[in-house]
Amino acid sequence: MKDTPIVILNFKTYLESTGERALELASICQDVADETGVNMAVAPQHMDLHRVSEAVEIQVLAQHIDPVDAGGHTGSVLAECARDSGADGTLINHSEKRMQLADIEWVVSRMRELEMMSVVCTNNVMTTAAAAALGPDFVAVEPPELIGSGIPVSKAEPEVITGSVDAVKKVNPEVSVLCGAGISTGDDMKAAVDLGAEGVLLASGIILADSPRDALLDLVSKV
Amino acid sequence: MKDTPIVILNFKTYLESTGERALELASICQDVADETGVNMAVAPQHMDLHRVSEAVEIQVLAQHIDPVDAGGHTGSVLAECARDSGADGTLINHSEKRMQLADIEWVVSRMRELEMMSVVCTNNVMTTAAAAALGPDFVAVEPPELIGSGIPVSKAEPEVITGSVDAVKKVNPEVSVLCGAGISTGDDMKAAVDLGAEGVLLASGIILADSPRDALLDLVSKV
Amino acid sequence: MKDTPIVILNFKTYLESTGERALELASICQDVADETGVNMAVAPQHMDLHRVSEAVEIQVLAQHIDPVDAGGHTGSVLAECARDSGADGTLINHSEKRMQLADIEWVVSRMRELEMMSVVCTNNVMTTAAAAALGPDFVAVEPPELIGSGIPVSKAEPEVITGSVDAVKKVNPEVSVLCGAGISTGDDMKAAVDLGAEGVLLASGIILADSPRDALLDLVSKV
Amino acid sequence: MKDTPIVILNFKTYLESTGERALELASICQDVADETGVNMAVAPQHMDLHRVSEAVEIQVLAQHIDPVDAGGHTGSVLAECARDSGADGTLINHSEKRMQLADIEWVVSRMRELEMMSVVCTNNVMTTAAAAALGPDFVAVEPPELIGSGIPVSKAEPEVITGSVDAVKKVNPEVSVLCGAGISTGDDMKAAVDLGAEGVLLASGIILADSPRDALLDLVSKV
């Protein structure tokens, strides 16, 4: 599960990664994983998750899971339903879906119980350290101002990555650090890995590329 | 679409209506609709929606749609994704997923643009009148204290139904009123229809019944 | 209470309207009300409200009240506490503090019970109609994209004002319509009143003016 | 500031601690601090904060501060306004006002910049460890199920206190651990301190007591 470096592609809610196009994109990720041997995972929208998980072998993550037990929670994403639908884990606390601290802890613990993968997103070194204390599989640090900017965190704010790696090592060395925000090229990813990251979380740089396949192949070309 | 009386079964996040069991339950609803001619719709969890919509002919509703356009909205439910997944419409503002007024308006308008059905849930006569002003297809009034109680609103608070019907007639007579909360038997539903409701929204009374099929057949037996 | 036209100055969280400067600004509003006879009200921050209410005779509104009864609600704004602190009413559902529909209804009803003034903010004609159905004293429509823009709604989107006035007349003619967003000059306010508004809700155009006193005198000079 | 053991009395939104009664209660806390030498702090409602801070010498905390800079944030609690109103610090993330992780970090950092005290509330050992990583002055752990229960955490779940103390020591030993939930007597407080807590956060056990003064005197009688 934690075969690193890992590339996690967050499909967000782009039309370019919705419905049939989600299936195509997931299939491209599968191909690139097969061709290059790099560990890849995809995080499609809730309603696309089941058919994506049926279509590919690589890991499929939910974009969010709600901190609720089965019962009367209309509109919520239930962990058991995610698992039944083929999810291998979930993103938690993405900057576009921020969660309360107590709820992050709840979902991380639930994922552990269900033997599913947890990737907690954070926005700076301090919140990365806090998230690491909860014991998820991964923490993915993304300075919000760089998300979707095309400016890679590994160049613009390398100290966020190294600071996160150091902080996590101190708080809970079993947690792996990923980074995101502005990552799209092989150079960006190599820089991230050189700074201590064990992978990347990315979205628009690949999804909106002229050729997502070429963009992915470039991304993983230097690691 | 507005063939009434309509029975909308909200699957919520019960394990009894998750995954394979969501498919079974939807199939039962299909059978009952076919056998009795009553218009039925189901609202499965997000991750179950696509396969449920592939399996049945009756209308399938999302439990919630977020007020967002396509783009960077990780974890949100995009209207276009719901439509691509086979949703014919959505519940909006369920008491377990309350929304801001501006967001309810956004989703009702978006459903209208996409020619999808909108069912706004409300909690009393005043909010029913407010919701009707937004012009959805249906308003479903459910006194929160009766939800999941087994005490039918049509008996415990008939004035909520008649008051809602009157208020909606005044504000926007094209909107149809449904009622929910505690409804489970044929007598409950008949009472609701007699009070002016054009259908019911229900959940646990059917989902947790020993035989959902028998419960549904009883529910629609007197209309 | 509903002596119109009314000018409501929302202090927001500007430093220019915090603490001692809130007192000064409220005092200026009092002076302008005294000099011109125009009905004015101020909405200071929660923590400034008590001393502002002690210092002026004009109406003082809370910026927000939470939908809670007395009890265990740490951090919430209790209606009774607002009243004890000297508030004559409250803004509800400001675009910077959007509320759920059910909660708006709760607070409007609570204000009615406590004989306090309610001003529900809305973002377009549809939500204005919905808010009017709840029976507040005022609905203040503010297209969000114009808030703080310096572009007056009365010029940029006059149809929002006339449409709101028409819609409210139909749903509940006892509700008065205010407008906001970009209003700062006498011409803006006159245009708003000519379009049917019974007053204005404004903030930065006055608070950040070189001379708030002069700006206010200009604002009310043509009505 | 961190003179321990400290007793923090959260006034919540009880009528018994609103308005004039907030002043009386704060004055009682002042008396008990003077008589016993125990460090006490009070956390009144936002609208009561300024007059309470004018009336007493002991520390006054806000119940909540919003993660916003000065500007357009109607209805929010601005850190600068709290400071100007006499607040010496704030509770953060109380179980009745849960916050997002990124926002907790923002407010803790802001309090540090303004040299104000920060008390982050948490619900279990894991979230306590996470909160400690953010470097607040205090973490106050309160199992939610015991809040307002009358069953003291120091008896019902002593391992939550010792586990929190151990976890915080590992993550950031400069942070002090308080505990809350169900604490009301001298025995409860002594047990908490014996387990490693440096003080208590409490509310209803004192506020709703027949004699808050006697209850407070009893509370601090054994430390």
Automatic annotation (TrEMBL), chains A, B, C, D:
GO CC aspect terms:
cytoplasm
Where does this one sit in the cell? Cytoplasm
Q: Has the keyword Isomerase been applied to this entry? A: yes
List the active-site residues. Answer: 94 (electrophile), 142 (proton acceptor)
Name a single GO biological process: glycolytic process
Which Gene3D superfamilies does the protein's record reference? Aldolase class I
Q: Name one Pfam family in it.
A: TIM
**UniProt KW Isomerase keyword:** yes
**Which residues are recorded as binding substrate?**
10-12, 147, 182, 203-204
Q: Could you say which EC number(s) this protein's record lists? A: 5.3.1.1
Molecular function terms from GO:
triose-phosphate isomerase activity
- CDD domains referenced in this protein's UniProt entry, alphabetically: TIM
Instruction: Identify the metabolic or biological route this protein is part of.
Output: Carbohydrate degradation; glycolysis; D-glyceraldehyde 3-phosphate from glycerone phosphate: step 1/1; Carbohydrate biosynthesis; gluconeogenesis
Functionally, this protein is described as follows: Involved in the gluconeogenesis. Catalyzes stereospecifically the conversion of dihydroxyacetone phosphate (DHAP) to D-glyceraldehyde-3-phosphate (G3P).
Q: Which NCBIfam families match?
A: PRK04302.1, tim
Family annotation (HAMAP family): TIM_A
Subunit structure comment from the entry: Homotetramer; dimer of dimers.
- Per the similarity annotation, which family is this? Belongs to the triosephosphate isomerase family.
Which protein, by its recorded name, is this? Answer: Triosephosphate isomerase
Which source organism? Methanothermobacter defluvii
Q: Which gene encodes it?
A: tpiA
